[in-house]
Amino acid sequence: MSVLRRTLVLSGVLVLAAAGCGSNSLEGGSSTSPSTAPSSAPSSAPSSAGPDLSGSLPPKIKAAGKIVVGTDATYRPNEFLQGGKTVVGMDVDLFNAVAQKFGVTVEWQPANFDTIITGVQGGKYDVGVSSFTINDKRKQQVNMVSYFNAGTLWATAKGNPKGVNPDDACGKTVAVQKGTTQLDDDMPKRQAKCKSAGKPEIKLVVREKQDQATADLVSGKADAMLADSPVVLDAIKQTGGKLDQVGEIYDAAPYGYVVPKAQTAFAQALVQALQSLNTDGTYKSTLQKWNNDSGAITTFAVNP
């Protein structure tokens, strides 16, 4: 199973981002804050470039004229709050452009990362867009539409004063977000290696939000953190040199939009929208805006 997903926000910087995250969680839960306006409002008419996909909308979305999206808005640069209320980021800009291909707007609803999939399953959200790593467990629950590629990366305080080695972090204190593949898939394997080698286990500081995990590292409460590569790289930049990358990016895997299992036709239409955005240049320019173009993919698919 692939590992990954979203990081951070610290004081001025602690509002960064994390979630999407390569979380595996399928539990339910309540959202953390009320709905917020999209970072930009797509036109109510389908985009003139590419196919008109409005006929592929599920009846609920078509009647409402909007797609209600659940997102963990603590995962900068992919999705985070600007001014405390407006959801912005790479995922936001890209999905707003996707929605325009259908002639509808997007209502972004911040939520705890580990509640979004069940929110989609239960109809609270039409789609989940939150740096979700595509893996087998999630594909059993929902449809996932690939749109980006990311991996896992570790970070420490500047200069790595605690001498953290991601391949041998036994005995170190490591901050990680709840519900992510980093916690659910990566850490159990590392803990097992520590145990078999007769070394102390990794001391995990599990946080509800990625920005909290990042803050733990910056404040010295944790020796290291791990999260999706775009999030960690942005955290390093946003903290003004307080953090360093440790090791290389690993376990690269695609992110996917979360769509109800029964809505395969809608999921396939989202693929068409992404293909159209790739053709007209919007896809690449959106990723470049957020310095994430290295994660661009050329083949979009349902449940790859």
Low-confidence stretches: 6-20, 23-45
What percent of residues are in strands? 15-25%
CATH topology annotation of the domain at 154-248: D-Maltodextrin-Binding Protein, domain 2
Quickly count the helices.
9
- Largest beta-sheet characterization: 5 strands, mixed
Radius of gyration: 18 Å
The neighbouring-strand order within the major sheet is 9-8-10-7-11
Instruction: Give the mean pLDDT.
Output: 87
Shape category? elongated
Layout of secondary structure:
Elements lengths: L58 H6 L1 E6 L2 E2 L3 E4 L3 E3 L1 H11 L4 E6 L5 H7 L4 E2 L7 H6 L1 E15 L15 E5 L3 H16 L6 E5 L2 H10 L4 E5 H10 L4 E17 L4 H17 L1 H8 L15
Parallel strand pairs: 1-5, 1-6, 8-9, 8-10
Antiparallel strand pairs: 2-3, 3-4, 7-10, 7-11
In brief:
The protein is α/β, with parallel strands linked by helices and 304 residues long. It is 30% helix and 23% strand. The protein has a domain at 154-248: Periplasmic binding protein-like II (D-Maltodextrin-Binding Protein, domain 2, 3-Layer(aba) Sandwich), CATH 3.40.190.10.
